[in-house]
Amino acid sequence: MKKNSVQIFVLGLVMSCITVSSFGQLRDIGNLLAGGITDGEKLMKAYLKPLGNAMGANLSSGWYSTAKTHKLGGVDITFNLNLSIIPSADKSFDLSSLALSNGATGKAPTFSGSRNKGPLLTYYAPAPNNTYQLAHYNTPPGTGLSFLPSPMLQLGVGLIKDTELTGRFVPSVNIGKIGSFGLWGIGIKHGLKQWIPVINKVPFLNLTLQAGYTSMSQSANVKVTPDMIGSVDQTTAQAANWSGQKMDLKVTNFTANILVSVDIPVISVYGGVGISSSKTNLGMLGKYPVPTFGSTSQPSVVTDASMVTDPFHISIGSKDGSITKPRLNAGLLFKLAVLHIHFDYTYANYSVATAGIGLSFR
Fold first, then answer.
1. Regarding beta strands 232-233 and 300-302, do their DSSP bridges make them parallel or antiparallel, or are they unpaired?
2. Per-residue pLDDT tens for 282-307?
3. Closest CA to 299 of 149, 132, 50
């Protein structure tokens, strides 16, 4: 079992590297603004949808490994690795369903889709006696990942009246030229067994109500210049600075569950049923080239007037940016004195596999 605990920790580090490298895929997303802000919003929502959903699913998981709460002053420190599974249906999107201004059709990869570039999108400007090309680019490739890992560190503390407070945290870390990542969360677990006659007499059985809120912030550096979209840069040096481009992604999740577990000295079997509600907000910061018609000799140019600054802040998901889904969870906890190792699986729209290792002093 000690060997397994080391393997879980090493796996967590490996998966963390996968998460970090996948963020680098977002560097080319600024190209999606070349056809204008309206089309850019539609394309970014479709492309990033599985990233927001997968992150939200991960944030809803790993809160517990038993329905049993700590005694007053009891403490546990746990390292969790949550692995959300991305449905095949969310690995591509239909361009025609977005009703883009250029009438584009075909299938394009989402963040989790094929590693090949998507269809070539071309935008034109009508002019006297002719039509001129303004911009062209391929939609960005996906990561090819069928899952998305999220590691996190968690602390639980026992309070009075069969109540436990939980905090989770990953410090904001700069990931070189890629961007940054960090999260925090707070949760509570309260024993219900104490309030129910007959059930409160059953040994080894625990029944609790659990709720938790997590906020994750991710920043990814973006790079798009006029030449990358087939345009000529006619901006002044003072006006345009393409180096400050950045994408800010914030995912928040609230989950509430009823938990039940059977706890004996060496092993616990636990499960939960509840809801999970996630919201994803996307902000594009910096200056971005948007082409305009220049002349017949240089039809596609980017000027001080055509470029955009901090183009938008949008929600990704349903109409209000929030997605609420039911969830079912089941798992096993192995207890070796103070060393605890647990595994569980959550069935939902984006299902999640969780592994964790920690020290518990109840």
1. parallel
2. 999 999 999 999 888 889 999 999 99
3. 132
The DSSP 8-state label assigned to residue 249 in this structure reads: E
- The lowest-confidence range among 48-62, 229-243, 290-304, 336-350 is 229-243
Residue 196: CA count within 13 A, CB half-sphere: 10
Three-state secondary structure readout of 95-149: HHHHCCCCCCCCEEECCCCCCCCCCEEEEEEEECCEEEEEEEEECCCCCCCCEEE
Q: Is the pLDDT of residue 2 over 60?
A: no
Q: Find the Cα–Cα–Cα–Cα dihedral 137, 142, 143, 146, rounded to 10°.
A: 180
- CB atoms inside a 10 Å sphere around CB 176: 9
Which residues contact residue 188 at a Cβ distance below 8 angstroms, ignoring those fewer than 6 apart? 163, 164, 165, 166, 210, 211, 212
pLDDT of 65 reads 97
pLDDT 10s digits, 72-85 = 999 999 999 999 99
Quick: pLDDT tens for 199-230. Answer: 899 999 999 999 999 999 988 889 899 999 99
Measure Cα distances from 38 to 45, 172, 179, 319 in Å.
11, 32, 26, 16
Q: How far apart are CA 333 and CA 349, in angstroms?
A: 24
Pairwise CA distance, residues 95 & 217, whole Å: 28
**Lookup: tokens for 255:** 């989950």
